[in-house]
Amino acid sequence: MKKQYLPYIKTEITGGFWAEKQKLVRDVTLDAVYDRFSDTGRIGAFEMNYKEDDPNRPHYFWDSDVAKWMESVAYLTAKEKMPKEEARVDHLVDCIEAGRLDNGYFNIYFQQLAPDMIFADRDCHELYCAGHLLEAAVEYYKATGKDKFLRLMTDYMRYIKQMFVTEDSAAFSSSGHEEIELALVKLYDLTKDKEWLDLSLHFVNMRGCGSKPGKDSAHSDYNQDHLPVREQFTAEGHAVRACYLYCAMADLALRCDDKELKEACKKLFDNITERKMYITGGIGSTAAGERFEGDFILPNDTAYAETCAALALALFARRMSLLDADGKYADIAEKVIYNGFLSGLSLDGRSFFYENAQEINLQERKKHEGVHYPITERVEIFGCSCCPPNVTRFIPSIADFLYTYCGDKVVYVNQYMDSVSHFDGFDIRQKTNYPFDGKVRLTATKDLLIALRIPAWCDEYTVHVNGKRVTANNEKGYVTIISSANDEIELDLEMQPKLNNADPRVEADIGKAAVSYGPFIMCAEGIDNPYLNESVIKDGEMQAVLGKFGLPAVIVPAAPQPLYMIPYHAFANRGETDMKIWVKKIQN
Question: Is 386 a catalytic residue?
């Protein structure tokens, strides 16, 4: 029996870390993003009344920015009605209906500024924008029952099929920026119409097959068009595009029982996480093409590590959990969501990082004019503002990562959040203060095999059932408990500060160590550590304390004075300052 994941709509996050983040997005971030999108013309562009020399000239990726905001509203209003935001989405949908072409096509850039270039320039994100609009339409229908948006986008997909399959009359054969591929799978899952699964498979299969590239677009590893997908075993090119493709490949491998696709996905995942990923879960190490570099090329000071790329890796990891019962996939998802993704949002919910620095040395930067460094403080919007609405759609749907299951007999607990989840015919409740400590109390209302993930960071753990300690083997990152209805399972993951020695193959980190505390990667900021750039970690016991922002902190023995370290995702919230994850270590 194939595994499924329990969708976010079946879970209430009842308290703790993620409940606070979801409240922040609902109360602050969603409107903050909308307001900036309104200021910059993104929202108004859907009115389709732009005239030459008007301010805020539409850009070819603006549809996708707004679509992700619309999808965010869907996730939030599904849990608690948001009439104002829902009305905004309905207005945008009305604009799409009024502005689309008779054949179903809709794009605010091409229709207003380049109508003679429709489906002629692969690099201009038409299919990417269409995919994000489709994802938003699917989720909005599921959240509200309103079907207009879904009908409009289904019409659009029929036209896309006509242009790319039936007539094969478009100037290119597959997307320059992947996204439509996974969106079509979502449409298939909703409608069970195999037409959409086949269209997704068509776009995936066309990659690397010498098909039409379109205007000025080469077949290259930059857009994962260098090899057929079943022969792609190393992650290449633009990191977001790559991981969106890999998400679609994993989706199709599961639904089509495609063993070659599955094996390619497994190799790609391992290549990323074992050779091309920062300790924070950040990927795509260079600003030159926002892309993966070669194995173990992970500079800290110039790291790119786009927020969207981290999100895409988490989505890929979640899909891999359905293909392979190995805890390493949930381990990577956890690393990303608590670190390399979450650093993209300020603690006040109003500003964002596009790139996520892995080190800041302000004095050293002054010596290297012309070198591209990531910014040191978050901003409210970017010229390319894909990351903010990705944050607003990801956090409300974070419960997608909690569970995978096989029928009504076996449940895998992949993440730990204070929550109540509703399966078909039974519930599971988690009571926990995770990620601040490793104690989890779990009950299910029917007899089950419950597989509890033991995170890779955890060296010691205990399991009790109804107060009695039980022993269970850790197999591929899970311990399996035979649970009767309403048994109380207590999992205690020992959470202590941990020193992580650098991989000697990563030149930038040779002779250094990084500190972690449970799922948090820690960093030191100059505002707390005046001797940060001269610091050397010494042997000695590290101490976990309650620190700033109500988050854990770790005191690390170091010379010339102990280091005060905070969770990486919380850096750059107190003004511009130096920051380090990797610190020199005394070598024994």
Answer: yes
Distance CA 121, CA 380 (A): 30
The DSSP bridge partners found for residue 499 are 515
- Asked if omega into 435 is within 30° of 0 (cis), the reply is yes
pLDDT at 192 > cutoff 90: yes
71 is catalytic: no
User: Based on the domain organization, do 411 and 486 belong to the same domain?
Assistant: yes
* Active-site residue, from 71, 139, 236, 290: 290
568 is a domain residue: yes
Residue 256, token pair as written in the block? 């089509």
| Token pair recorded at residue 450 | 């419950």
Percent of the chain with pLDDT over 70: 99
Residue 367 lies in a domain: no
Q: What angle do CA 98, 101, 104 make, to 5 degrees?
A: 95
Is residue 95 located within the same domain as residue 204? yes
| Token pair listed for 551 | 């988050």
In DSSP terms, 412 is beta-bridged to 404, 451
Residue 196 contacts residue 185 (beta carbons within 8 Å): yes
In 208-326, alpha helices (H): 239-256, 259-275, 307-323
Is pLDDT of 214 > 70? Answer: no
Q: Mean pLDDT for the chain? A: 96
Coil, helix or strand at residue 437: coil
pLDDT of residue 438: 98
Name the region of 287 (left: φ>0; alpha: ψ -120 to 50; beta: rest): alpha
Residues 482 and 513 occupy one common structural domain: no
Chosen domain end from 433, 463, 493: 493
Note whether 97 and 206 are same-domain residues: yes
**Does residue 217 have a pLDDT over 70?**
no
Domain end call among 219, 254, 283: 219
Residues 113 and 89 in one domain: yes
| pLDDT of res. 212 | 73
CB 493 within 8 A of CB 432: no
At 399-454, the pLDDT tens digits run: 999 999 998 899 999 999 999 999 999 999 999 999 999 999 999 999 999 999 99
Query: Is 70 exceeded by the pLDDT of residue 370?
Result: yes
Q: How far apart (Å, rounded) are the C-alpha atoms in residues 231 and 558?
A: 47
Q: Spot the catalytic one: 95, 247, 386, 458.
A: 386
Alpha helix ranges (H) inside 235-306: 239-256, 259-275
Structural domain range at position 117: 40-219
The residue type of 78 is: A
11-13 and 410-413: which strand pairing?
Answer: unpaired
Amino acid identity for residue 568 in this structure: Y
| 391, 345 contact by CB (below 8 A) | yes
Whole-number Å distance between alpha carbons of 61 and 179? 12
Residue 205 lies in a domain: yes
